[in-house]
Amino acid sequence: MGLFTIIYAIICFCILIMAHEVGHFVAAKLTGVQVNELSLGMGPLVLKHQGKETMYSIRLLPIGGFCSMEGEDEESDNVRAFNNKSSLQKAFIVVAGALMNLLLTIVILSCIAGYVGVGTTTIDEVSPEGTAYAAGLKEGDKIIEMERSKVCFFSDVRTLIQQSDGEVDLVLLRGDRKVYTTVPVEKNEQGVPVIGITVEASKNPVTAIHCGLRSTVRMGQQMLQYFGNLFTGKTSVSDLTGPVGIVSAIGVQAQRGFLYVANLMALINLNLAIINMLPLPALDGGRFLIILINAVTGKAISEELEGKIHFAGMMLLFCLAAYVLVQDVGRLM
Fold first, then answer.
1. 114, 145, 192, 281: which has the fewest C-beta neighbours closer than 10 Å?
2. What are phi and psi of 292, to 5 degrees?
3. For residue 182, which of 199, 164, 202, 168 has the smallest C-alpha distance?
4. Using only C-alpha atoms, what is the Rg of the chain?
5. What positions carry a catalytic annotation?
6. Which of 104, 63, 62 minimizes the C-alpha distance to 265?
7. Distance (Å, whole) CA 301 – CA 309
8. In the chain, what are the helix, strand and coil shares in percent, each to the nearest 5?
């Protein structure tokens, strides 16, 4: 694991963590909560700047960060304390970190799509050796439906081709008229199902944002399915990857190029958003759940009990983190 990999990993972690903490910070400011400190990193202070109200700091260990709010973990008589705000305001502050990570994921994937171009459904070239040529497809044809499903991007077309049972039904827009045809699917030398076409790429910002949104949704669905399998036992805890494994993955992607690192960064970022909103103690999702319970029951869970719940959850998370760390090191050896 080289110095270059470590630097790349630190930059990635710092961006993701600060996006999360800035989300809490902005939401706290918008709701009038007093923020005592916004920190990047944990441990001893390296740099600090005292603002009018908030101290902004950088700490030695780039393994986390925090947004320290008045009355967040203890009772405070300050009218601007977190504990004196309404349930709706508290909930907004708690979920804002994950929302910021979600927004950053969309931005990263949209920028990637805008830089490399988004594959459209307008045909650019038809290979004379491909099945599409034999079926009569032409340059300039726009695929608007495939297998009775509307398609917006080439990724939709590719997915349906790969899922086909040997042929695909297409609806093309040729000029101002629709053309209906069926194209056999064959496999290329790599064993990938194809029909022998290339498509035009678009770098339109609106198209890139649309693609970024769709990619984020699909990535999120896959992650939620994975977590569902994890809790039902279909997936093993041993498959989880921790910081050491992530740093190793960043190193591998860095050798391929910046775009691969950016894509991995989006994946990690969305993971952080989803994991943080799981309804588990010590996570933002656990805090949100307690706020919801207290809003419905009228303070059924006291600050003291909430603190104990989160402490127990933190200990369990530390144990899980230690287990995952051992797994990561074992994979690298």
1. 192
2. -65, -45
3. 168
4. 25
5. 21
6. 104
7. 10
8. 55, 20, 25
Q: Could you give the dihedral angle defined by the CA atoms of residues 33, 36, 38 and 41, in that order, rounded to the nearest 10 degrees?
A: -140
| Cα 203 from chain centre | 22
For the segment 173-177, the average pLDDT, to the nearest whole number, is 92
Domains of the chain: 3-115+212-332 (no CATH), 118-202 (2.30.42.10)
By CB atoms closer than 10 A (0-12, 13-18, 19+), residue 85 is buried
Residue 11, token pair as written in the block: 């930059």
pLDDT in tens, 82-107: 989 999 999 999 999 999 999 999 99
pLDDT at 145 over 90: yes
Strand duo 142-146 + 149-150: pairing: antiparallel
Residues 221-237 have a mean pLDDT of 79
For the chain, how far is it from start to end, CA to CA, in angstroms?
A: 12
